Amino acid sequence: MSKNASYMDLLTLVPLGISATHIYPVFLLATLTYLIIVFCNLCVLSTIAVSKNLHKPMFMLLFNLPISDMLGTTAFFPHLLYSIVTQNRVISHSACITQAFLMHFYGTGNLLILSAMAYDRYIAICCPLRYNAIMSPKKVIIIIFLIWFINFSMMVTLILLLTRFKICRTNIVDLYCNNPSLTKLICEDTRINNYYGLFTIVLIQGGPLSIIAYTYAQILRTCVMTNHPDARKKAFQTCGTHLVVFLIFQINAAFTLITHRFQSASPYIRRVLGISILLFPPFLDPIIYGLKTTELKRSLVMFLKRNICSSKL
User: Fold this and answer.
1) pLDDT for 185-216, tens place per residue?
2) Exposed, middle or buried by CB within 10 Å (0-12, 13-18, 19+), for 311?
3) Secondary element (H or E) of residue 12
4) Cβ partners under 8 Å of residue 184, min gap 6
């Protein structure tokens, strides 16, 4: 018989499987990873915020990526660290719902931000004379607002569809809470949830992929036709960096969501892919953009030198 979530407030996540001798080394490694991710993303955020030469459409859009990355990692790591030390995988239903919302909010946000950045590069390379008119500060603010509004609206709807049900199980099949694993706790008809889930997958995965495919096809065409080797090299460098970040995230997210819909899919592969979404993009994004984007790299070095020198005074 189904019970209301208030009567089944405690849920159990999949065990971490860490032996007693490895608890503290794993805890230190996970803590260090989280701190590095937060530090690197904060460096990118701070550098863009204080460097006037970076107050351009491309970097205004990039500014949102570290915010999204830190939301995702912060939704995951603190509870993971607690679980490692206590070996307790229990989580409250309300905390699980919150974590699931933040996880999906992070994933959707990243794909939308990367799509907007691809559009910016397309305009900059294919329509350079119209760039300032198309990507004016006002229009960039509108794009950023739409990214977060669409993301928030879709994820709130996803969670509201989930919370209207009573749950009859308490074992989460993943290492963290997400919509598919929470849906599996319900014993009622969840067809509407499944249809909406498929709709969001098609829209959030397919939409950005279509934008990336079109914009990069146009960028490649323009780069091949240009007679300026330096401009071509710069375009390939900038776009190549962006494409690597996008593909890492897109492939991981797609496989993680798809494996939830096939009973024959290995739960271990799904969990590894699920962790990689929360680990690699937030860790690699600031490093890749910081090292490969010349303007950001210079400003980042200056920002760090300035703060190191001021701390010594």
Assistant:
1) 998 888 999 899 889 888 888 888 898 889 88
2) exposed
3) strand 10-12
4) 169, 173
Q: Give the pLDDT confidence score for residue 121 in this predicted structure.
A: 87
Q: In 3D, which of 240, 238, 258, 260 has the Cα closest to residue 248?
A: 240
What sign has the CA pseudo-torsion 76, 211, 196, 157? Answer: positive
Residue 236: predicted pLDDT: 65
| Residue 87 Rama label (left phi>0; alpha psi -120 to 50; beta) | left
Does residue 255 contact residue 273 with C-beta atoms inside 8 Å? yes
Query: CATH homologous superfamily of domain 10-312?
Result: Rhodopsin 7-helix transmembrane proteins (1.20.1070.10)
Residue with tokens 């307790």: 88
Burial of 206 (0-12, 13-18, 19+ CB in 10 A): exposed
The residue-averaged pLDDT of 145-154 equals 96
d(CA 308, CA 66): 22
Asked whether the beta carbons of 162 and 96 are under 8 A apart, the reply is: no
Joined together, the tokens standing for residue 151 give 């993301």
Per-residue pLDDT, averaged over 170-192, amounts to 90
Among residues 241, 253, 232, 224, the alpha carbon closest in space to that of 293 is found at 241
260's tokens: 């939830």
Report the C-alpha gap between 78 and 47 in whole angstroms. Answer: 26
Pair 200, 180: CB distance under 8 Å? no
Q: What's the whole-model pTM score?
A: 0.88
Which one, of 77, 72, 78, 142, lies nearest residue 111 by Cα? 72
Residue 275 makes CB contacts below 8 A (sequence gap 6+) with 175
Say if residues 170 and 12 touch (Cβ distance below 8 Å).
yes
- Rounded to an integer, the average pLDDT of 216-224 is 80
